[in-house]
Specification:
- The chain is about 30% helix and about 20% strand.
- By secondary structure, the chain is of the alpha/beta class.
- It has two domains: about 300 residues, 3-Layer(aba) Sandwich (Arginase, Chain A), CATH 3.40.800; about 80 residues, no CATH class.
- β6, α4 and β7 form a beta-alpha-beta unit.
- α2 runs parallel beside α3 and α8 packs parallel to α9.
- It is globular and about 65 Å long.
- The mean pLDDT is about 95.
């Protein structure tokens, strides 16, 4: 039996000099906090476990180890999360003697939380920690989808030590990994090696450029809905909105956009792990980046509180919750089958596996309209290709 007190230090942050909200309206009011006077005991009644991982080794972004407490300090100044989602702040993970010790500890913690049906929300730390997420989720899923909101595809064609810019190498080289599908939202072409882009496109990865995302940001919601792990790199935000990272870019998402993406991740009923990484207070200006990071987390938690668990019941034909539409497209032998939720207006495409099992791929209303105009939606093409892969 895992005793989380062995893995975590209690929360210890200084109170703000002033507060805009009354105590009852503040974020800490409706969560449980691991403190010196309140050790971790029964966590079965909680839905979300929030915790920091102050680790900057195996990364050029070493100052990211100071991120969790400063982000937490900003988060605790925000309003309480609406709804009744029970949240516990476990504190900060104790740093291992070596970086690999920290990875092993994080893997243990994530595995335990998932097994106990608690949703882990990780405050990093650098993205060199992400292989621990892979090791943990691979224990539970035969195939999983990783979605990264990141200006870079963190993979290297060179042989070098694992770090925060090539964690995908570690995952792909892990023969025990069940990593299956990679989605990148907001990559910036001029920051990436074209050979690496081509390599991931051959793997049927979905790579969405920053310009395409910003043109129709709501079309990213189905991508998060089909994701099992979602990671946000703060460098996906433009430098003017988030200077506190080692590798900022003049271009990127605005603060409002990154928070909306985070909310989409929160409402996904398939997601198992969420993490925010690479905030480096050493480069920050007046807590601008840690403040935005706190708001990213807040919007994720707010989305989580509004979650509708529809994916598990899609296959129940007589539930009355969904409507099926059959659309004939000239170039295809069989009709395309779309499923729409009467409750949330969300859409899915129904496919069949080799074992004649129904598979549901999240899509948008635009995909349905495209099919009605005798065009094959890209989401259908990509999903069918992945089934063959």
């Amino acid at each position: 039996m895992v005793d989380l007190n062995d893995y975590f230090n209690p929360v210890s942050i200084e109170g703000p000099e002033f507060e805009h909200l009354t105590a009852q309206a503040g974020f800490p009011h409706n969560i449980t906090i691991h403190t010196d006077n309140s050790p971790l005991k029964d966590i079965s009644k909680y839905k979300i476990a929030l915790f920091g991982v102050p680790e900057g080794r195996n990364s050029l972004n070493t100052g990211s180890l100071r991120g969790p407490d400063l982000i937490r300090g900003q988060l605790y100044r925000l309003a309480k999360i609406p709804g009744k989602s029970k949240i516990i702040d476990l504190g900060n993970m104790k740093q291992g003697v070596t970086f690999n010790d920290t990875l092993a500890g994080l893997t243990d913690v994530l595995s335990f939380l998932i097994k106990e049906n608690l949703f882990p929300v990780i405050i990093g730390g650098s993205s060199a920690l992400i292989p621990a997420l892979d090791r943990a989720i691979s224990q539970f899923l035969k195939r999983y989808t990783l979605t990264a909101v990141d200006p870079r595809i963190d993979f290297s064609n060179e042989r070098k030590e694992p770090d925060s810019f090539n964690y995908l190498n570690t995952i792909l080289n892990n023969h025990k990994s069940s990593f299956s599908h990679y989605i990148n939202i907001g990559f910036q072409t001029y920051l990436n090696d074209q050979q690496i882009i081509n390599r991931f496109l051959k793997r049927r990865s979905e790579l969405i450029r920053i310009g395409d995302v910003r043109q129709a940001i709501y079309l990213t919601e189905p991508l998060f809905r089909d994701s099992d792990v979602s990671i946000f790199d703060i460098s996906a935000v433009r430098q003017s909105d988030a200077p506190g990272t080692m590798s900022p870019s003049p271009n990127g998402f605005y603060g409002e956009e990154i928070c909306l993406l985070s909310r989409y991740a929160g409402i996904s009923d398939k997601l198992k792990i969420f993490g925010l990484f690479d905030v480096n207070p050493d480069f920050d200006i007046r807590n601008q980046t840690t403040g935005l990071a706190a708001q990213i987390l807040w919007f994720f938690l707010e989305g989580f509180s509004q979650k509708q668990y529809e994916t598990p019941v899609l296959n129940i034909s007589n539930s009355g919750r969904f409507i099926k539409y059959h659309v004939r497209v000239t170039d295809l032998e069989d009709d395309l089958i779309f499923v729409k939720s009467n409750m949330t207006d969300r859409w899915w495409i129904e496919l069949q596996s080799d074992k004649d099992e129904n598979i549901y791929v999240s899509c948008s209303h635009e995909d349905y309209l495209k099919a009605n105009h005798n065009e094959v939606p890209d989401r259908w093409v990509q999903a069918v290709e992945r089934l063959k892969y």
